[in-house]
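Shapes recur. One chain:

:::
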Amino acid sequence: MTQSNVLFASPQNFLQNHVFNDYFRKWVFLGVLIGIVAGVGAIVFFVAIDASTWLFLEQIVGLTPPGPAGEGGSTVVTAATHKWLLPLVVALGGLISGLIVFTLAPEAEGHGTDAAIEAFHQKGGRIRSRIPFIKLVASAVTIGSGGSAGREGPTAQIAAGFGSWLGDVFHLSPADRRTALAVGVGAGIGAIFKAPLGGAILSAEILYIRDFELEALIPGFIASVIGYTIFGAYSGWDPVFGEGLGLNFHNPENLIGFALLGVVCGIMGILYVRVFYGTQRVFHGIPVPPHVKPMIAGLLVGGIALFYPEVLSMGYGWLQLAIEGNTQALAVHTMLALVLLKILATSLTIGSGGSGGVFAPGLFIGGMVGGAMWGVMDGMVPWIPDTPAPYVIVGMVALFGGVAKAPIAVILMVAEMTNEFSMIIPAMLAVTIAYLITSDTRIYSSQVETRANSPAHRNEYLVPLIQTVSVADAMRTEIISASPDDTVADAEERMLRHGVRGLPVLENHRLVGMFTGSDALRAARDGKTTVGDAMTTKLEVAYPADSIHIALRRMSQAGISRLPVVDRGNETQLLGMIATRDVASALDGQLAMLANNPLAQQMDSGFDPFGSLPVTEAMTTDFDTFPADTPARQVIERLTATGSHAALLVDEDGYLQGVVTLGDVDHALGQDLTQPVAAAASTKMIVARPTQSLAEALSEPGAELVRQLPVVEGPRGRMKPIGLLRRGDVLGAYLRARDRQATITRRMLARSGISEDDLVTIDVSVHTDDPLAGRTLAQLGLPQDAVVTSLVRQGKAMIPRGHVSLQPGDQVQITTRVSARELVLHQVTSNGSNGAAGANGNTPEDV
């Protein structure tokens, strides 16, 4: 929210009016700032790692690890003078790192790049300001003490965190905040690896499995150049692995070997990811304090290092030796062993909750795969190069490019790091093969398939879809109906058995009414016994050619959750039924087709998502307020710069006075934009409350005609705005809720060993007259194979403990095995739920 006293401060006003309202000026300005922080952050982290390495390994253990040529490192291999201290030192580093992370910011555990990707997709591009500093210190300790991790994650989080902070300072739109974060990721990594081109591409490629964030590309170029320049001025301009060996690709027969290398790297990449996340699951289940787990892992890594010290830290010095073909230091059997041991050491270090990146270990593993493969084939086949360097370099690209799902960026980064651009052709072949073999296996678990799968972009797909998908595409044609002569008891039992909350009433195949749970309650009160006496005859209907947007609007206006679909020329001819759940299912299916997601399935639930989701789930808090006397021109410039459609007018105490849109200004003021914007504002406002459900908010009289509703607190006349509810956000909120539930279910599956195909979810709404109200969750008597995974009360999620008593309006979600489904339904319905429970046939989605 932009406070008026901040918005119109002189520097801020200048930036908004002269910088941020122009794409080029905005991203040059922001890109330069992000690049400066990326470069300075890379220097600070580089120095911190050197200092930590000097303290832990050189001074205590007496071990000086070899370093890459471009960073002034020595490739002379020396033995540790106090080798026996290695397990203790690595364990000490793990303990210190664990204490720092789990005391100050538990979300900083693991590899930082993945956290930044998650912030982009799931958190609106927001990273807590303390995270970059904590990540820097914890990772420097982890790497410096010998933990097997890389330096790219912390560097990425430093610049990405700064990009997020810029979003707060300059009140950037959510889209610009996310772009700034992505630009920071690429600039930070590009700076510390002295690979600005690859870093810029990485900012656009790393977020998705099969897509690009093109908005980050041009700003990424600017920030990466600045970051690289600053870091290069400090550390020197040589590539990380020196000036290269002058390799050339001129023999097409060599591509056979590189293709085989791609196959092997793809297989080893799958092993890397599976061992990594398998180790993470094991450590999550160890019943010890979280800060102790990195210490345990450090002890094990130090034990490996007693025999193979090459697994310690980043390992770039050993990669340098492999590129140079030093077979004395790295024999073939040593490299073969290091492939597996580095996978294990990295999985232990980071999977236990230690802090560091997975980029450097991935390059190390790929390089050793290439070097070992060259050693095995040397002298046996005619198309092998004379030196192992091409195989080491291409192996680095193929393995990590395949599992990082960023083949283009990794190709360019490795070429910049080794100064061997002639290897791009064989690298393209190998990484493509590895990418195809690894398929959806990825080291960054927060990546999503495409933009359509990202919560950050879903609204961009929902708005046109909701207007173009027809009712005919979403409606159900398998109709459960009643007749006027049926008893109310029979109709209630039918609704309960089929998990629906309303039945169309047919007489001689003609639609004559609707019978719902509410009708049943009124019938019991009024002593009516037949459906014909209790049914509703004044019907809201939909037509097959209507868009689902029109159908949803009619439901909102009438305050109902389902419509009969009838023939436009004969409204007594019933063609199908459409409910809010069907709207969501249709959009899910369309999004899945856009994203090529094979896991999406049609919903089969009586649960009304819009009736259970609170306004706070969908509203945006990123909006502008203006004093009523603000010149209209300033309001238009601000709305245009942020892509918003409406602004809120407030008095000096922050109370809402009116709403103005671009259309209002154009209609009321024409070309005279010097007038106060209040002259064009509407003061008869339809508002939403944060405690309302989305269905309630959208069914407010007149709300169907408004594109966005102010969300307010306080009584009429003294309402303070706290957000905006935009129509495009409503279904987005539903899909985000499903994303969260899918995550909970996946975690449950991972810990219990249950197959995805063996799960269903059941949604229960507690109504005023339900005997369920007042019962505790423990009193539901659920079977052992069932667990309450969600409890929402008045828009707020509660921890579903056994002693919690159910109240009217509660929304409960239960996950259980398919075999226990009927028993769970019986336990819920026998306690008196008014037909609100229904089984959801969805299997968990990979979101």
About this structure: The longest helix spans residues 23-61. The two ends are 30 Å apart (CA to CA). The chain has four domains: 15-242+249-447, 461-612, 615-730, 754-840. The first strand starts at residue 502 and ends at 507.
